[in-house]
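Lab channel / #folding
Pinned by the channel admin:
"Please post every new chain as: sequence first, then the structure tokens as a reply. Keep commentary short and put observations after the output so the thread stays searchable."

First post following the new format, from NK:
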Amino acid sequence: MISQQARRERLAKANKAIEIIASYGRRFFYDRKTDHVARIEMDERGRLWWIDEYSFARIYMHNPGRWRGFTHG
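Reply from TO:
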């Protein structure tokens, strides 16, 4: 099983990748009105949540169905 420290490091790298994507071209995952970039957070139980940059919705990423609050495609 992967350690919590390794999971936090992976999370930081994923969020850095999202920031890079949000800074170039069509600036996916960035909202100009709020000057906010989407991100991924991990809760105390180790579950991953997508924080949408437009709606600010906290979306559980392992939900196999529709992600309510997700504002992309």
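NK: Residues 4-60 form one domain.
TO: also worth noting, Residues 37 and 44 are 22 Å apart (CA to CA).
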